[in-house]
Amino acid sequence: MQHDPYLEHVSVRFQEARLSARLPAAMIVDEGEPIAASLVNFSRHGFRLHVDGRYDAGETFRLEVSGWPRLVGRVIWNDRGRIGCVFDEPPSGKVFQTMCASATGLDRAAF
């Protein structure tokens, strides 16, 4: 049986606590125009967006959130404008702390 990295990410998703967020975000699909979205929650390995449109499982895109590095995400599920995604390459611990500070408004210098 072949190893499926998507299933690995899905199992991680259920083990990780997620940080709630209501942040404006953008999806860049195939280097096209930014698609407005709202980041609802995130963890070091994944996130959920509210976004108009239908995106298929496995579809990749670049996620942009102000103050965050550009990250590549992959759709795991889609349900009426909500999509669950995993990061193709999870951010480092230090970068993730910066993302958390940005999302909560905490002073980044505290980390």
Strand content: 35-45%
Give the SSE string. Answer: HEEEEEEH
Strand order of the largest sheet: 1-2-3-6-5-4
Largest sheet: 6 strands, antiparallel, barrel
Q: Please mark out the parts with pLDDT under 50 across 5 or more consecutive residues, or reply none.
A: 107-111
Q: Can you count the beta strands?
A: 6
Principal-axis shape: globular
N- and C-termini, Cα separation: 43 Å
Q: Classify the helix fraction into a percent range.
A: 10-25%
- Count, helices: 2
Rg over alpha carbons: 14 Å
- On the 0-100 scale, what is the average pLDDT? 84
Structural class by secondary-structure content: alpha+beta
InterPro entries: PilZ_domain
Protein name: PilZ domain-containing protein
Note down, in words, how this protein is organized.
The protein has 111 residues and is α+β, with helices and mostly antiparallel strands. It is built from two helices and six strands. It has helices at 5-15, 93-104, and strands spanning 19-28, 35-42, 46-51, 60-64, 71-79, 82-87. A six-stranded antiparallel beta barrel has the order 1-2-3-6-5-4. The protein is globular and about 30 Å long. The model is unreliable at 107-111 (pLDDT under 50). This is PilZ domain-containing protein. It comes from Sphingomonas oryzagri. InterPro entries: PilZ_domain. Pfam families: PilZ (PF07238). Residues 15-91 form the PilZ domain.
